[in-house]
Amino acid sequence: MGLLSIIRKQKLKEKEIRVLMLGLDNSGKTTIVKSLLHKDIKAISPTMGFNIDTVNYGGFNINIWDIGGQTSLRTFWYNYFEKTDFLVWVIDASSLHRLSENFTEFEKVLQEDRIAGCELLILINKIDTYNGDQKKLKKHVVETLQLDKIRNHKWQLLCCSAYSGENLQDALNWIVRSYENKYYIL
Ligand SMILES: Nc1nc2c(ncn2[C@@H]2O[C@H](COP(=O)(O)OP(=O)(O)OP(=O)(O)O)[C@@H](O)[C@H]2O)c(=O)[nH]1
Ligand SMILES: [Mg+2]
């Protein structure tokens, strides 16, 4: 068995997936994680540092690193890239005027060498507040974040709501399926 096959086999055996959750302040990162854990989501304050939570899904421990998104905290994001399997980028569907700010920060993060091997999940959260056409919204996000130009990462874009739980399971499912596909040995 070659070295690559051994690493792949080991990764699947460990059943640990590391997810880094980033995005602008107030986008709903912490609320999404707490909602996945069926915890109280009524009184969540802005994250001043970071939280680590583990969600069990599909036989995997998904370790989610949720980092505060306020402007003054964004330089700290760069301390958390090591060993990341997935980057989840959260956008607020009720603050679409901040999409260009999203692009500026997202583009900077994508330039990081340490996330070279990681896959991207972009979540348009708070979709419960959005009354427009979701297809058009997704197209707008793809264009503004220039997702079609991404060549070196596999990516997925989903609308979700931490409040209603809409698409949160699909997000976990995509993560686990992508992880298995990546490390599956024929
Ligand atoms: N309507 C609606 N509001 C949401 C949803 N998710 C989060 N919120 C609200 O958005 C606000 C910000 O949520 P947080 O989870 O603190 O956001 P965050 O991205 O962790 O913010 P930082 O920690 O500052 O980076 C809170 O008032 C939440 O109740 C959602 O799906 N729908
Ligand atoms: Mg937070």
TrEMBL record:
User: What is an example of a GO molecular function annotated in this UniProt entry?
Assistant: metal ion binding
Q: Does the keyword Magnesium apply?
A: yes
The species is: Dekkera bruxellensis (Brettanomyces custersii)
Keywords (A to Z) from UniProt? GTP-binding, Magnesium, Metal-binding, Nucleotide-binding
Q: Which PANTHER family match?
A: ADP-RIBOSYLATION FACTOR-LIKE PROTEIN 2-RELATED
InterPro entries in the record: ARL2/3, P-loop_NTPase, Small_GTP-bd, Small_GTPase_ARF/SAR
**UniProt protein name:** DEBR0S4_14994g1_1
Gene3D superfamilies in alphabetical order? P-loop containing nucleotide triphosphate hydrolases
User: What's one Pfam family here?
Assistant: Arf
Q: Does the keyword GTP-binding apply?
A: yes
Which of this chain's residues are annotated to bind GTP? 23-30, 69, 125-128
